[in-house]
Specification:
Oligomer: single chain
Number of helices: 5
Bound molecules: zinc ion
Strand order of the largest sheet: 1-2
Structural class: mainly alpha
Number of strands: 4
Strand content: under 5%
Radius of gyration: 34 Å
Distance between the termini: 91 Å
Helix content: 40-55%
Shape: rod-shaped
Order of helices and strands: HEHHEHHEE
């Protein structure tokens, strides 16, 4: 802590707290890029402010205002770098999420198309439910949700679904079968 006894001798003493702020600020700034610098940056801000207040009230017996300022700059920069990195990483997460969601919706669309093809090829009707084995010949590749969601094929009619919220097929041909063949090879419920 600060020594106030120096006032008696008349020589101004360098504020130790200012030295600490300088050290912590630089350390905190440099290491904020690897996340461990943040406590140091915060400590630098705190000690920098306290040191500058003490120097101000010491009436010339304490020096180190400049060092404390450098410490403060380092500390605030360190915290800003962390904030920036958090913002970037959150934006990257959101982008990844959107990419995953789009890939899943593309899968759902393929399953939806495969259902129509299966219904036409096997003379199935609205309400009949295919399995993945049934749809395999009509799917370009194995359909897997990139986020690990479970697919529900559903019957001919309703859209296939993913268990992950937001992975939803929104734009869809309202007819479960193609318009040209509607009514010809897909009678509604042909079996009892
Ligand atoms: Zn999904």
């Amino acid at each position: 802590m600060e020594t106030t006894g120096q006032a008696k001798t008349g020589a101004a003493q360098s504020s130790r707290l200012a030295n600490w702020s300088l050290f912590l600020g630089l350390f905190g700034f440099v290491f904020s890029f690897v996340f461990i610098g943040v406590p140091f940056a915060i400590a630098a801000i705190f000690s920098g402010h306290v040191a500058r207040t003490r120097i101000k009230h010491a009436a010339g017996t304490l020096t180190g205002k400049g060092k404390a300022l450098v410490g403060l700059i380092g500390g605030y920069s360190g915290v800003s770098v962390l904030g920036l990195m958090l913002a970037i990483s959150s934006a990257a997460d959101k982008m990844q999420e959107a990419v995953n969601g789009n890939a899943c919706i593309a899968n759902l669309r393929q399953i939806d198309t495969a259902k129509k093809l299966w219904a036409q090829a096997s003379k199935k009707a609205i309400g009949d439910t295919p399995t993945f084995r049934d749809l395999k010949p009509y799917l370009p590749q194995e359909s897997k949700c990139p986020k690990g969601g479970q697919y529900k094929i559903n019957a001919i009619g309703p859209a296939p679904e993913c268990s992950i919220p937001g992975h939803k097929l929104s734009f869809r041909d309202p007819s479960p079968i193609s318009q040209t063949n509607a009514g010809t090879n897909l009678p509604d419920r042909p079996r009892p």
